[in-house]
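Onboarding guide, step 5: your first structure request.
Type a short instruction followed by the sequence, for example:

Predict the 3D structure of this protein.
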Amino acid sequence: MRAAVLHETGQDKLEVYDDVEAVGFGPGRVRIRVRATGLCHSDLSAMSGVLPQPAPFVPGHEGAGEVVEVGEGVTRVKAGDRVVVCWLPSCGECPACRRGQTELCLAGFMNAGTPNFRRSTGDIFGFAGTGTFAEEIVVDARCAVPIPDDVPYDIAALIGCGVTTGLGAALNTADIEAGSSVAVIGCGGVGISVVQGARLKGAAEIVAVDPVLSRREAALKFGATRAVSPDELPDAKQQLTGGEGFDHVFEVVGRSATTRTAYDHTRRGGTLVVVGAGAMDDQLQLNMFELFFDEKRILPSLYGGGDVLRSYERTIALWRAGRIDLEGLITHRVPLTGINEALDQMRTGTALRTCVEL
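The system replies with structure tokens like these:
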């Protein structure tokens, strides 16, 4: 089968091969024919080494497809079912799951260290235990979440990561109050989903912050009330909040510098939500006095900060009702052979989401 492979961490191009085999099928596992996958910035971060991932590996974790075969003991799905790929499945048994914090379950991360693919040259891993830049994947059955027949594969793929992450940060983690002021730093697919979540919660002011003009223009279409470049953010803070700062600021880049900016533009007693996935050696510096005196809440949000399966259901319901726009997030489409073009679109900021159609 065909798959896109990164040979060494730090390379910026993928090699597309026709002789890759999905491995690991057996009890408790399912084989999925991938029909669509989105390109998320986390894929770029894994390729560059910002996020830890053994190489060689097949990137991709935001996918949807059709179940081809199920292993012994699998009852939740069957061959022919349409599914979204969940890269962070919960086991239901660990302390985090028992507390109701299923997004903190580590069972899914354990899959990242087991090869998902093979070529004649040796084993190949799948990013985050999945690797959706491939025509077929074998994953734990908990990674295959059934979707209704009316949800297209491309829409389902977005729900598998970016939309769930962004919407959840606004709806679950921040729990934005109606009438509040919001700033969103970083307006790719995840940031735009934060914008839509803030609009759903009734935020009065939603300021989208991004260095790329096309992304700022897109944010206005999705519900932002103002869109500014990073250099213009201090003026927006002064004009909209009298210099006090925003009630909620979302950092959707994954860097300490932008997180510090987000902190500085959050009002005293306000909330900073960290959505971007950053590097382990990128240190955020805060002094102990400001941390105490400003009483700003700092809330990390992993995968939307809530029960993933419930978040999927909620997103589909909102999409069906026309309350959120998911089709508009897909600005580019490419076949798997055009994956390096899609990577460039992500790096330059010309795409909100590129759908890779398999």
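Each response can be followed by summary notes, for example: The first strand starts at residue 3 and ends at 5.
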